[in-house]
């Protein structure tokens, strides 16, 4: 193989390679300006070597060898110089799109003028000189118009001279112009880096810039050596430098594309790069092996060499696929499974958020992920705020004020209908009178990422443009869709976690309250010579609204209280704590029972709302005489069973306490004799319900107590509880249940 | 609890149905009563004929209805009080507070 053929093949290959790259990049995201410009730039760069290779074919063709530089093809060869203006444009939009905010975008075409002139001069030089010459002659004719046409004629002749000069030295003139483009572009590329702070973008830019530097550096050296400098490189050196420039530049671009997601090329295309390159290399090695195999085997196998070489080829073919796969996998694991690969982003993100329950930290992780991997410039959160029960912006350093979004806001309604990440311009119909639309515009929001669980919109993320100014690709939108689902899960988990913490705290508080309530109940009934007392209070929730109390009074009497606050749970518990305290302070001050109840009622009325009240029975037992003074404030009638079996109900008193102000109460007196039973209870006992929704009823309690009147207080209480539990086995009981049983004994007779 | 209401001779007649047990029942009745008070319709009869059951909270609702009407210069009467509720009113001695009547018509008559 001669050097010329190798050179031709290399030119073809490098040119073809660049054009393949250009097509792939442009096709991947045609709507992106950066992809279009890069594609055009690389495609044009590929045209150069292709034309060179064609030129070599022509100049070495066996039949009619033509010098490349004299052919028409050579004139078209200059098309590739449009690479330079595109390079300049590329340097303006990479790594940051600085062209985006430029108002007069049409002025861009100015940068193409030198190359257009060059092409015209080269292609139409003959026609051009003819036209100019004709005009000059026309203008030079004698006549009235000489005065006007004279200067024009002189101008035209200068122009003709200039065109001729340019035509003669076009390679050097436009070589210099192109080099100016290269230097300017390098300057812009380098200065563009200053705008960057995102680590992923920085590393990507670094690689791309090195590719550009090396490629352009080699090109500049080759150009300076072949056209401009007085010292000339040999043609071989120039060619090698150019090929090296093309391959280095393109190679590093591909590397940046695959490894650093330069241009956001989709994974599938990045994989196809890898696949194409490995396959091409492998095929080249195979061809070499197959070609060389016969020569290699003939000294060993002699005449059988041909047969052996066929077998070798078959073995090679069988191995092709596995080897190719192996190389492919190795390269993928080296380049593609990087931090910026979507699968890895999702995996990493879910790992981070799954154990994160602090909403603020969670938002930070979301923001960082979007900024690092999708290059989002700003992330704004609008979330449903449980405290105010409205959607509101989440304050950030930039916008520290929380803005509440009205539920009727049109834009919010529009977003509520979304399921996927959506460009804000698609919500154009919902802008009318929308405060949210105004806020989003002010923050330059481009993309809305709704976060919905099965039913509700938890909120949404409002994303601005990317830092680079590029658009969101369809890959980005897919990734955002997946991420938003994970965000929903994470945000929901975080909320549930906070709620469960709150619940645990409340439960702890309630059990502390229960302990306080237990401490407020007498630890055991007073031991009296005259009577035996049993008492029990079971709440239907952790804390209850019933209580009983025994108070030792200065006059030797024992105060007995049973009370039931309306409602259940904590509110009722707080109320009875208050009632118990008031009773204790009132009776120890020596107030009579009606006065005590009057004061109690008045205090409860003024401190609670009107639907809160309590029923209460209070009595004072004189242990020596058996005298019992009592008053019933709307409570279930206590049952008094006399030793002879007759029954009395203790009804005298007044209205429930806490319902209405300025109530008066009456009290009554009875004497308890031996074997009398006084049975006090709350409605939890009488309203116990069986599965037919029949109540246990007060009548049944009376009958039960009557028929068990010979038992002592403790047994009576145990037996009636057993009976009620058999009737209504609900556990804990439906309502707070309290019983106090007092059984008078014979001791009284000695004093009575 | 379900609550229906009608006006007869300028008197509001509220008819709760089912069980009066507090929670949402309380706010339902409160809202209705406050509406009446704001509209200056302060003569109210609560018809308890359809109420099967009432617990202590339910009784609290009746008490607060009575209080809010009385505080705004209005008046509350009960009609068709069932035996169960009547005995509850007797035990709590609220029977002396509420004017109760066997039928709605009698209650209306009592307002005139």
Description:
The complex is a heterodimer of chains A (752) and B (112). Chain A has 752 residues and is of the alpha+beta class. Helices cover 57% and strands 12% of the residues of chain A. A 6-stranded antiparallel beta sheet of chain A has the order 3-2-1-6-5-4, sandwiched between helices. In chain A, strands 8, 9, 10, 11, 14 and 15 form a 6-stranded mixed beta sheet that branches. A 5-stranded antiparallel beta sheet of chain A has the order 7-17-16-12-13. Chain A has 4 domains: 3-265, Rhopdopsin 7-helix transmembrane proteins (Up-down Bundle), CATH 1.20.1070; 266-338, no CATH class; 342-498, GAF domain (Beta-Lactamase, 2-Layer Sandwich), CATH 3.30.450.40; 524-751, PPM-type phosphatase domain (Phosphatase 2c, domain 1), CATH 3.60.40. Chain A is built from 22 helices and 17 strands. Chain A is elongated. In chain A, helix 1 runs parallel beside helix 9, helix 2 (33-59) runs antiparallel to helix 4 and helix 10 (267-301) packs antiparallel against helix 11 (305-336). Chain B is α/β, with parallel strands linked by helices and 112 residues long. Chain B has a single domain, classed as Transcription Regulator spoIIAA (2-Layer Sandwich). In chain B, a hairpin with a 2-residue loop joins strand 1 (2-8) and strand 2. The longest helix of chain B is centred in the middle third of the chain and has 16 residues, at 56-71. The model of chain B has no long low-confidence stretch (mean pLDDT 87). At the A-B interface, strand 14 of A face helix 2 of B.
């Amino acid at each position: 193989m001669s050097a010329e053929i190798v050179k031709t093949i290399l030119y073809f290959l490098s040119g073809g390679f660049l054009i393949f790259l250009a097509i792939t990049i442009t096709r991947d995201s045609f709507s992106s300006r950066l992809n279009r410009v890069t594609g055009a730039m690389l495609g044009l760069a590929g045209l150069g070597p292709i034309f060179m290779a064609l030129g070599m074919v022509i100049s070495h063709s066996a039949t009619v060898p033509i010098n490349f530089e004299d052919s028409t093809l050579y004139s078209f060869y200059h098309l590739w110089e449009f690479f330079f203006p595109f390079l300049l444009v590329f340097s303006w939009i990479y790594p940051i799109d600085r062209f985006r905010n430029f108002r007069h975008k049409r002025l861009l075409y100015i940068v193409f003028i030198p190359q257009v002139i060059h092409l015209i001069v080269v292609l139409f030089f003959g026609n051009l000189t003819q036209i100019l010459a004709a005009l000059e002659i026309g203008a030079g004719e004698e006549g009235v118009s000489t005065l006007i046409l004279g200067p024009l004629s002189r101008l035209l002749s200068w122009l003709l001279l200039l065109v001729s000069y340019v035509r003669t030295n076009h390679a050097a003139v436009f070589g210099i112009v192109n080099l100016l483009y290269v230097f300017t572009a390098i300057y812009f590329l380098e200065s563009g880096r200053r705008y960057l702070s995102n680590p992923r973008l920085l590393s990507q830019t670094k690689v791309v810039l090195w590719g550009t530097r090396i490629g352009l550096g080699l090109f500049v050296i080759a150009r300076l050596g072949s056209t401009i400098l007085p010292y000339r490189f040999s043609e071989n050196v120039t060619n090698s430098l150019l090929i090296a420039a093309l391959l280095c530049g393109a190679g590093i671009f591909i590397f940046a594309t695959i490894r650093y997601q330069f241009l956001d090329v989709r994974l599938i295309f990045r994989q196809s790069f890898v696949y194409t390159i490995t396959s091409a290399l492998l095929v080249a090695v195979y061809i070499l092996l197959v070609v060389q195999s016969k020569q290699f085997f003939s000294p060993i196998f002699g005449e059988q060499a041909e047969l052996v070489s066929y077998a070798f080829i078959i073995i090679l073919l069988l191995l092709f696929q596995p080897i190719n796969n192996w190389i492919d996998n190795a390269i993928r694991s080296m380049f593609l499974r990087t931090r910026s690969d979507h699968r890895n982003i999702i995996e990493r993100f879910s790992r981070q958020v799954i154990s994160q329950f602090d909403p603020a930290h969670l938002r930070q992780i979301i923001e960082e992920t979007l900024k690092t991997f999708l290059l989002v410039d700003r992330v704004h959160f609008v979330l449903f705020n449980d405290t105010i029960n409205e959607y509101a912006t989440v304050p950030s350093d930039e916008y520290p004020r929380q803005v509440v979004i009205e539920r009727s806001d049109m834009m919010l309604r529009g977003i509520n209908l979304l399921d996927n990440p959506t460009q804000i311009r698609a919500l154009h119909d919902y802008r009318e009178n929308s405060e949210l639309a105004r806020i989003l515009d002010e923050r330059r929001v481009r993309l809305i990422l709704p976060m919905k669980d099965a039913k509700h919109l938890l909120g949404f993320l409002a994303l601005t443009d990317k830092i680079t100014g590029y658009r969101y690709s369809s890959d980005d939108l897919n990734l955002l869709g997946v991420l938003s689902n994970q965000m929903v899960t994470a945000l929901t988990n975080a909320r549930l976690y906070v709620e469960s913490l709150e619940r645990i705290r409340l439960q702890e508080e309630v059990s502390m309250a229960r302990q306080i309530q237990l401490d407020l109940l007498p630890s055991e009934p007073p031991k009296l010579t005259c009577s035996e007392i049993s008492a029990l209070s079971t709440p239907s929730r952790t804390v209850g609204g019933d209580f009983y109390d025994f108070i030792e009074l200065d006059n030797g009497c024992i105060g007995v209280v049973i009370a039931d606050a309306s409602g259940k749970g904590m509110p009722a518990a707080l109320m009875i704590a208050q009632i118990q305290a008031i009773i204790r302070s009132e009776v120890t001050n020596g107030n009579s029972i009606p006065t005590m109840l009057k004061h109690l009622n008045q205090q409860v009325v003024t401190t609670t709302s009107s639907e809160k009240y309590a029923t209460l029975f209070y009595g004072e037992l004189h242990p020596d005489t058996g005298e019992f003074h009592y008053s019933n404030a709307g409570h279930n009638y206590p049952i008094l069973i006399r030793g002879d079996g007759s029954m009395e109900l203790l009804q005298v008193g007044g209205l429930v306490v806490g319902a209405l102000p300025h109530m008066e109460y009456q009290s009554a007196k009875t004497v308890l004799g031996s074997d009398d039973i006084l049975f006090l209870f709350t409605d939890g006992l009488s309203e116990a319900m069986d599965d037919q929704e029949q109540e246990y009823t007060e009548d049944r309690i009376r009958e039960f107590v009557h028929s068990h009147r010979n038992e002592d207080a403790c047994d009576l209480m145990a037996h009636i509880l057993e009976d009620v539990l058999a009737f209504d086995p609900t556990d804990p009981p439906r309502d707070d249940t309290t019983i106090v049983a007092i059984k008078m004994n014979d001791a009284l007779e000695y004093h009575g | 609890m379900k609550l229906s209401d009608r006006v007869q001779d300028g008197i509001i007649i509220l008819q709760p149905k089912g069980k009066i047990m507090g929670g949402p029942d309380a706010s339902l009745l409160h809202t209705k009563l406050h509406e009446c008070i704001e509209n200056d319709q302060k003569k109210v009869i609560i018809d308890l004929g359809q109420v099967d059951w009432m617990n202590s909270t339910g009784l609290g609702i009746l008490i607060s209805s009575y209080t809010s009407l009385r505080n705004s210069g209005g008046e509350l009467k009960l009609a068709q009080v069932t035996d169960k509720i009547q005995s509850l009113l007797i035990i709590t001695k609220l029977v002396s507070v509420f004017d109760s009547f066997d039928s709605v018509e009698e209650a209306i008559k009592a307002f005139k």
